[in-house]
DNA sequence: TATTTGCATTGTAAACAATACAAATTTATA
DNA sequence: TATAAATTTGTATTGTTTACAATGCAAATA
C-alpha cells in the first residue's frame, strides 16, 4: 500500500527503484517528522541489516536532487529531510531545535523572483524563534 | 570611519566591544559577500596575527544571536554570515554554490505567520537553482 | 544458459567543520 | 593597585559528511 506509494513516487521523479530506495522513500512518506540521515538509517537497519549509512546519504541526496524530497538546512547542526514536497514553510525553535510545518503566506506559492542572473528551481521559507513550551519554561 | 560604524553597530545591538569584535564586525560591514568563518579568519589574521579561529566562531555566533548579523545555512556544506540585516532574500546556485542577494516579494517584509505555538524572531527566504554562467556552460 | 555491462551498495578511511575546555590575557570595578 | 569578571587563545576532540575502491546485483546481450 504505502510500499506502492513509495515506488510510484520514485517512478514519478525518474528515480530507478531498488530495495533501499523504496524503503527510504517509504520511511519519508510515513514520517513527516523531518528526519536526519541518522534517524532514517537507525530505523531502517532493523529491516535491512546490511544497509550502509553511505547509501542513506547518497539516496537522500539523490531524492532532493530529483525533487522527490526536500533537504532542510535550517538547523546548522544537522541536515533534515522532508518527504512532503508540497509548498510549505517551517519554523525552528532556537532553544530546543524543534521543527514545525507552517503554512505559506497567501500568494507566496506562486511568487518567483525575476532575474536574468538565475533560474529558480526551489523556494525555501522558514522562521526562527521560540516555541510555546520553551517560552513557558523561561516565564515560570 | 568604518571602524566607527562597526563600533556603533556593536553598541546598538548591546554587544560589548573588543578589538576582535570590532574587526570582525568591520569586516562584515565592508564585505557583503556572505563570508564563512574561515574567510573572515584568514583575512583578519594579517592584521591580528594572534587571532584565534575559535574567537571568530564565537563572535559570529554572538552577532547572530544579538541580531547584529545573519547566519545563512543555505549551503549545507558551509555556514555563511551576512552583515546586511535588512530584510532580503538569497539565491544559491546548485552547481557553483554562488550566493546572491535577492529582493523580497512585495509585502513579504511585513508578513509573519500567526500561531499560538511559537513566536517568530527571524524570517528567512531563499531560492535554489542554476545561475546564468553555469547555465551557459551546460548549453554550450 | 553463460557473459557482459553498468549502476547501486557497502564499508573503511579520510577530510573537515565545529565545539569543548582550560589556560592566558585583557578589561572593568572596587 | 588588587580583585573579579569577561574575553581570547590554542589545543584536543567530536561528529558529520565525503571519497573511494571493492563488491553485489540485475537487466541486456550473445
How does this model look, in words?
Two copies of one chain form a homodimer. The first copy, chain A, is an alpha+beta fold. The first copy, chain A, has two domains: 3-81, Arc Repressor Mutant, subunit A; 86-139, Ferric-uptake regulator, C-terminal dimerisarion domain (Dna Ligase, domain 1), CATH 3.30.1490.190. Helices cover 38% and strands 21% of the residues of chain A. Chain A has helices at 2-12, 19-30, 37-45, 53-65, 132-139; strands at 70-72, 80-82, 89-93, 99-102, 118-131. A three-stranded mixed β-sheet of chain A has the order 4-3-5. In chain A, strand 1 and strand 2 form a beta hairpin. In chain A, helix 1 (2-12) packs across helix 2 (19-30), helix 2 crosses helix 4 and helix 3 crosses helix 4 (53-65). The longest helix of chain A is centred in the middle third of the chain and has 13 residues, at 53-65. Chain A is globular. The mean pLDDT of chain A is 91. Chain B binds a DNA duplex (30 and 30 nucleotides) through residues 16, 18-21, 36-38, 50-55, 57-58, 76-79.
Topology summary:
The structure is a homodimer of 140-residue chains.
Chain A: H1 2-12, H2 19-30, H3 37-45, H4 53-65, E1 70-72, E2 80-82, E3 89-93, E4 99-102, E5 118-131, H5 132-139
Parallel strand pairs in A: 3-5
Antiparallel strand pairs in A: 1-2, 3-4
Helix pairs in contact in A: 1-2, 2-4, 3-4
The structure holds a DNA duplex (30 and 30 nucleotides).
Amino acid at each position: 500500500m504505502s510500499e506502492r506509494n513509495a515506488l510510484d513516487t520514485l517512478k514519478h521523479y525518474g528515480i530507478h527503484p531498488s530495495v533501499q530506495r523504496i524503503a527510504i522513500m517509504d520511511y519519508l512518506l510515513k514520517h513527516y517528522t523531518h528526519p536526519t540521515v541518522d534517524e532514517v538509517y537507525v530505523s531502517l537497519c532493523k529491516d535491512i541489516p546490511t544497509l550502509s549509512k553511505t547509501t542513506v546519504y547518497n539516496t537522500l541526496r539523490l531524492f532532493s536532487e530529483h525533487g522527490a524530497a526536500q533537504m532542510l538546512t535550517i538547523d546548522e547542526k544537522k541536515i533534515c529531510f522532508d518527504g512532503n514536497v508540497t509548498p510549505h514553510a517551517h519554523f525552528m525553535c532556537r532553544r530546543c531545535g524543534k521543527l514545525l510545518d507552517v503554512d505559506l503566506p497567501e500568494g507566496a506559492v506562486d511568487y518567483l523572483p525575476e532575474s536574468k542572473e538565475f533560474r529558480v528551481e526551489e523556494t525555501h521559507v522558514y522562521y526562527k524563534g521560540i516555541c510555546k513550551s520553551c517560552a513557558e519554561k523561561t516565564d515560570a
